[in-house]
Inverse folding.
């Protein structure tokens, strides 16, 4: 006959289970506390939000309709009749990660719950999670990525840093970050013309400075810097330039004529010197540098001057000649490594000749007041992208934000560009002055080596 269990034992078992649960709970709590303490202070609000999202996910998913019910039979071990119908609830599994801009939530798709259903639920999720925006994309088959934006990367000012550019070469142009805080690049390899337009004071010159700072430390880049504004904007950067000019139309014409001379000489010798017909196939080098011609406030030099007096006629002739030179450099300079970047407040035909503008492979627009101005720089397709339209950027919060066609992305992308303090740009120019070379002299030296061999 079996003896009844010891009553002390029956009391001990629930106590042991309780103690085990308490230990597990304490370990769990300690783990969370350690993780919280280790997280940098600015990321802690993101971490708290990430935990809230994780621990309330099942309830949230049910409330916003991200749940699917399935009718099935009881499992074989169940004591319910095999013919009974049971309802199973399917909720997408999630993994969360903390990001500088918020929380990244990766959700596995389930049945009919895919990217479209998440997109439809995005605004409800934003309400439940008390954030401005939840953006949804398909990361890969079976995985939907939600970006829970706690800070808006487009309105959060960023500053240019040397680390951010890393080892990016002249073929890559790091423009800034998009609305999701993801890096955005513009094509630079094989590009001979770039037009940057936007209302005064919205960040064109700063954008060009960021490009300058990215390229200046490379011996494979030489600059021609032309500032139509004539103010102090480029003062110290000129020390890193092969050629430079302020608002002196004649000097500008002369400089551009010299770049054209370089282009012609390079066209004649590229096959012999580089062994290819397109410099971008081998990339720019110290001996065959990419020549970046920056013309800020470009309309200053390209506008026709009306008037019958001798000075007006002279200026008009200079403007026509300058326009012809710029147009030729953009049309023919691509394969020999000449890149012209034009910045202007308006890219309409009266400011920049359409022949020049339409040959530029890359277009970037900061805020614009009118649709015509936006269409002039970005093309008529921009009217199909109301969210990315430069007219939306007139709010002062969008100083430094531009609409552009980015590398590897469909349509237009809004990009927060980093601000470059003058002191940083001046310091970089000062530290890299020793890299200035005359590309024409470099070419002659290469030709010399070709004929006489290296001694
Ligand atoms: N990327 C940016 N982020 C934040 N502020 C900026 C940015 N770019 C420019 N700014 C601010 O706007 C001002 C004007 O910028 P600037 O580049 O000179 O404009 P533009 O050349 O279009 O007239 C700068 O002095 C700076 O205060
Ligand atoms: Mg400017």
């Amino acid at each position: 006959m079996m003896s009844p269990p010891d009553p002390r034992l029956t009391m001990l078992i629930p106590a042991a289970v309780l103690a085990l649960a308490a230990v597990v709970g304490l370990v769990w709590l300690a783990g969370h506390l350690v993780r919280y303490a280790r997280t940098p202070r600015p990321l802690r609000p993101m971490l708290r939000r990430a935990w809230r999202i994780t621990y309330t996910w099942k309830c949230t998913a049910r409330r916003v309709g991200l749940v699917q019910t399935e009718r099935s039979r009881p499992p074989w071990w169940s004591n319910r009749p095999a013919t009974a119908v049971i309802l199973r609830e399917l909720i997408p599994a999630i993994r969360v990660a903390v990001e500088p801009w918020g929380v990244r939530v990766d959700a596995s798709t389930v049945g009919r719950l895919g990217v479209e259903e998440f997109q439809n639920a995005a605004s409800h999720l934003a309400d439940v999670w008390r954030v401005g925006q939840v953006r949804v994309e398909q990361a890969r088959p079976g995985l939907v990525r939600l970006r829970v934006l706690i800070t808006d990367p487009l309105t959060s000012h960023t500053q240019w840093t040397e680390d951010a550019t890393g080892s990016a070469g002249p073929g890559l142009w790091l423009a800034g970050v998009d609305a999701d805080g993801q890096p955005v690049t513009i094509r630079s390899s094989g590009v001979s013309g770039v037009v940057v337009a936007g209302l005064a004071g919205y960040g064109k010159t700063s954008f060009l400075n960021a490009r300058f700072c990215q390229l200046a430390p490379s011996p494979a880049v030489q600059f021609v810097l032309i500032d139509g504004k004539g103010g102090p904007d480029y003062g110290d950067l000129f020390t890193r330039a092969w050629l430079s000019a302020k608002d002196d139309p004649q000097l500008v014409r002369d400089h551009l004529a010299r770049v054209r001379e370089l282009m012609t000489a390079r066209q004649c010798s590229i096959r012999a010197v580089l062994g290819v017909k397109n410099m971008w196939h081998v990339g720019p080098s110290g001996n065959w540098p990419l020549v970046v011609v920056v013309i800020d406030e470009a309309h200053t030099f390209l506008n026709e001057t009306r008037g019958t007096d001798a000075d007006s006629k002279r200026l008009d002739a200079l403007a026509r000649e300058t326009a012809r030179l710029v147009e030729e450099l953009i049309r023919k300079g691509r394969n020999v490594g000449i890149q012209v970047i034009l910045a202007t407040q308006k890219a309409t035909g009266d400011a920049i000749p359409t022949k020049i503008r339409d040959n530029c492979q890359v277009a970037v627009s900061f805020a614009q007041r009118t649709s015509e101005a936006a269409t002039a720089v970005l093309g008529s397709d921009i009217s199909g992208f109301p969210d990315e339209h430069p007219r939306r950027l007139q709010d002062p919060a969008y100083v430094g934000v531009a609409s552009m066609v980015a590398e590897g992305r469909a349509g237009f992308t809004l990009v927060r560009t980093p601000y470059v303090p003058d002191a940083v740009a001046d310091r970089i120019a000062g530290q890299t002055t020793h890299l200035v070379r005359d590309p024409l002299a470099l070419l002659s030296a290469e030709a010399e080596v070709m004929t006489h061999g290296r001694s």
Summary: The longest helix spans residues 7-38. The domain at 162-452 is CATH 3.40.50.300 (Rossmann fold).
